[in-house]
Amino acid sequence: MLGRRLLVLFAVLLGLTALVTSLAPRPTVTRPGVAQVTPTVTATPARTDAATTSRRVVATMSADPGRPRATIHARVGDVLALTVRGNVLDDVEIEAAGKVVPIDTGSPARFELLLDRRGELRVDLVDAERLIGVVEVSPPRS
Fold first, then answer.
1. Residue 75 lies in a domain
2. How would you class 90 by CB atoms within 10 Å of its CB: exposed for 0-12, middle for 13-18, buried for 19 or more?
3. Cys-Cys link to 133, which of 20, 79, 122, 123 (CB 3.0-4.6 A)?
4. Which stretches of the chain are assigned E, i.e. beta strand?
5. What Cα–Cα distance (Å) separates residue 8 from each residue in 11, 12, 18?
6. Is residue 105 part of a domain?
7. Which residues of 42-65 are buried (b: 16+ CB within 10 A; e: fewer)?
8. 3-state secondary structure (DSSP) of residue 112
């Protein structure tokens, strides 16, 4: 009986502690009497060299059977925003990038890739084992 009373007393004290801490005002971040330094924001000028500029390549491919293979041209450093649409239930894979995204009639597959090396990226349907397009990545402009 004494053990139960102690547990109830402990639970009531724990509840009161939680109530008091939730109602107490939050401590201020700054201590009174201490000078605070306000950080200043300075803009860093961006480089505008032709060799370092990248662009966003937005492209759409069709995964429907009978459509010709699409070819997308891009350069190293570009960002590829690829949408694959089609009336198929499958997975779209860009193996060189390690990406697999499902595709359905009302839900296209979407990829966002930073193209960091030259070469070809195959865009395949996994279950149908069919190539639907190629992304050709050429060297950056010099």
1. yes
2. buried
3. 123
4. 56-62, 70-75, 79-85, 90-94, 99-103, 109-114, 119-125, 130-138
5. 5, 6, 15
6. yes
7. eeeeeeeeeeeeeeebebebbbee
8. strand
Domain range for 112: 56-138
Tell me the C-alpha distance between 124 and 75, whole Å: 21
CATH number for position 73: 2.60.40.420
Structural domain total, the chain: 1
Q: Beta strand pairing status for 119-125 and 90-94? A: antiparallel
**What local confidence, expressed as pLDDT, does residue 23 receive?**
82
Does residue 27 lie in a domain region? Answer: no
Q: Would the pLDDT of 82 be above 90?
A: yes
Confidence band, pLDDT 50/70/90 cuts, at residue 42? low
Q: Does position 29 have pLDDT exceeding 70, yes or no?
A: no
For residue 124, give both structure tokens. Answer: 């395949």
Overall pTM surpassing 0.90 (yes/no): no
